[in-house]
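Sample entry was shown:

___
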Amino acid sequence: MEDTDAFNSRMTKLLMILAPKEGAHSTLLEGVNLMRVDRYSPPSPVLYEPSIVVVAQGRKKGYLGGQVYQYDAHNYLVLSVPLPFESETEATPMHPMLGVSIRTDLSILTELMVTMNRPSLSAQASMPQGICSTPLNHPLSGAIIRLLEHLMGAETARILGPQTVREIMYLVLCGEQGDALRAALKMPGHFTQISRILNHIHAEYTLPMDIKSLAEEAHMSLSVFHRSFKGITSTSPLQYIQTIRLHKARMLMVQAGMGAGEAAEQVGYESASQFSREFKRLFGKSPMQEVAHVRHMFVVK
C-alpha cells in the first residue's frame, strides 16, 4: 500500500494543476473549493461554513477559545457548524499551502445516516465541539485524490464527482470526528438546537436579533442558551452575530466593491462609526486598509 508521502505527493501535484495561482478557486462541483497560499499569513479572522478541509501541502492552524487546531498533510479539519475563528497559514512560494474544502451537505449526511442505520447519540453523550482536527487516514486520502482527479475534466467531475463527495462524507462519518457531524443531525438536546440557531444567524444576519428571542427559539433559558452557545462556538451569541456581520461586510467590500458605509448598512449596522470601530477591533485594520490588504494578498481585481 502506498505510504502517506505518496498520497501527499499525488494530492499536491493535482492541486498545483487545479490551483495554479494563489487564492480561493471554485470548481466544477458546487461546494468543493480549492485553496492556494504562496506566503506566510499570520493569524487573522476567517469564517468557515460547515465543511471538511484537507491540506496536502503546507500547514494551517486554527485558533479558537484557547485551543489550537492544526490541519496539514497529516490532519484534516471538520466544522459541523458555521464558525468564525482565527487561522494562520505556513507557506512559501516554493512550498505553497494547497488544500481542498468540501462543504458538508446535510441532505447527503441524512441519507448516509439512514442507510448506515447506526444508533443515535444519546442525550447523555458529551457535547461535540463545532470544530475539530483529526489524523488523515489512507482511505480518506485516496478518496480526496480521486475527487481531484475527477475535477480535471468536466465530464468526470459531473458524473463521478458527486459520488466521490458522498464517499468522503461517509468516511468522515465513520472516522474519529464523525460524532460532530452526526450530532449536527441526530443528537437530542443542546447541540442540535444551537446548530439550528447558528444556521439561522448565518442566513438572517441582516435582520435585528434579540438574544432572548433566540434563546426562546432554542427552547432554553437565557443562562443555558449562553452556556451551550459558548460551549460549541467558544464565543457569546452577541459576539458571534457581530463577527458574522463583519465578515459578510468585508466580503461585500472586497468582492462587490461596496464602500464601508454601504456594506455596514447591508449587514444590519445602523451606525457607520460603530461598524468602523468593531471592524478594526476584529481585523486589526480600518475597512479601507483591510480591503486593500485582502486584494493584495489574493490579487482580487
Remarks:
- The radius of gyration is 20 Å.
- The longest strand covers residues 41-48.
